Amino acid sequence: MTFPKNFLWGGATAANQYEGGWNEGGKGESLADHMTAGSRVSPRRITKKIEDTFYYPASDGVDFYHRYKEDIALMAEMGFKVFRMSIAWTRIFPNGNDVEPNEEGLKFYDNVFDELNKYGIEPLVTIYHSDLPYNLTQEYDGWYSRELVDLYVRYCETIFTRYQNKVRYWLTFNEINTMTLPFVGALASGYLKDLKDGAEIFKVGDNPQIRYQALHQMLVASAKAVKLGHEINPDFQIGCMIAAAATYPLTCNPKDILLAQRREQLVVDYCGDVQVRGEYGHYAFPYLAELGVELTITDDDRQALKDGTVDFYSFSQYSSNCVTSDESAEKASGNLIGGAKNPYLEASDWGWQIDSEAMYFTLNRLYGRYGIPLMIVENGLGAMDTVEADGSIHDDYRIYYLKEHIEAMERAITNGVDLIGYTPWGCIDLVSGSTGEMDKRYGFVYVDKDNEGNGTFDRSRKDSFYWYKKVIESNGETLD
């Protein structure tokens, strides 16, 4: 067995890191628009107002808003079958709770989908990718307010109806399970009542009761959107999206093995079980009780979760993590989930442990757990790229990383896993979500922009561009 004939090869982006045009076409401010630039050594911060003294990289992204035709032509040249992108909620409803949608924003995405269709590229649309309308953090308490469930569903109804004949593949929330992580979920909840102006984005302050209740409301909103989408167009394929970094025990100490199992349950499976099976796992409520969290769950919520299970499971996989009961063990750096350093692995420039075997491990684990089609919608190597004097960019390190992961995918397919698509992250260079910099590049296409927003924004093909084109042409047979 090799890659299926109709396998969806492509690439992935997110509006708040890629699109730009933050105040054009009637778009409103999102939470991401309030995040300053950062780097490996300087953290991103969030400000209550968008100020002239800071650079906010989401404001221009890499200017897809004005260059979408050029970028889609490059994707078509590589042979993309699918392009994962997100719709900016604030481009459709600038404040999140507007009475009427913004027609200019709706028309922009009409134009993007029409351009993709011209080349035979399927859009894979993430409905919500870390860009909550800023107004909903002020007028409400972000996702901690139940009102956001109905506002999100109304947003979904608008885009499902508008694009029902242009988009078939949808993802409800990006990496929804990062809400289980205190330093990520505290900000992602949109509950900013106690926010200190200029706080580091991963040090906003955490309240587990607020964070897990907000996550519950996201899960209910996702389920209601799935049900609604299927009613509007039964041909819609709607998936979840989970950050599924593999977790290993550092040693064969039984305590380490149990810690690894618990990490997988509480970080990865917590949301996957709800979105695929329609109910919380057996381990969820005992864990919440340990945290002193008591969820408010209505009968309507329970029914919605059962009625709104997803059609496929999509996930991100960049690296793996180790856990151990030995508190003196050396820590790995870089990865948001974190853990002990794996002595058998090398790491990227940003400290992410490089592990193609994690892809094989995760595909087998997830398919064995859920038995529904899988799609890898984020994977890749963030690295520093050098532009040579002749304009060429030799990124053999990226080709090697991707080759190893694609080989692991093929082995999983041979093992019976139903894998339907692969969209490497940042197929065209974009702003890093965690650090807000441009130096951390993932793309097959180089964008001339630096960490301060300077540059021509011109596009250049890297060596990996030509390599990936051959991969797609051969349906994964040619990897050298």
Q: Can you describe this structure?
A:
The protein is of the alpha/beta class and 480 residues long. It has 14 helices and 14 strands. The chain has helices at residues 15-18, 64-78, 89-92, 103-118, 134-138, 147-162, 182-188, 208-232, 254-277, 284-291, 299-307, 357-370, 396-414, 463-473, and strands spanning 8-12, 45-46, 82-86, 122-128, 169-173, 199-200, 237-243, 246-249, 312-316, 320-323, 374-378, 419-422, 445-447, 459-461. The longest helix is centred in the middle third of the chain and has 25 residues, at 208-232.
Strand content: 5-15%
Contiguous uncertain segments of 5+ residues: none
Q: Tell me the number of strands.
A: 14
- What's the pLDDT, averaged over the residues? 96
Structural class, by secondary structure, is alpha/beta
Helical amount? 25-40%
What would you call the shape?
globular
Radius of gyration, CA atoms, in whole angstroms: 21 Å
How would you classify the quaternary structure? Answer: single chain
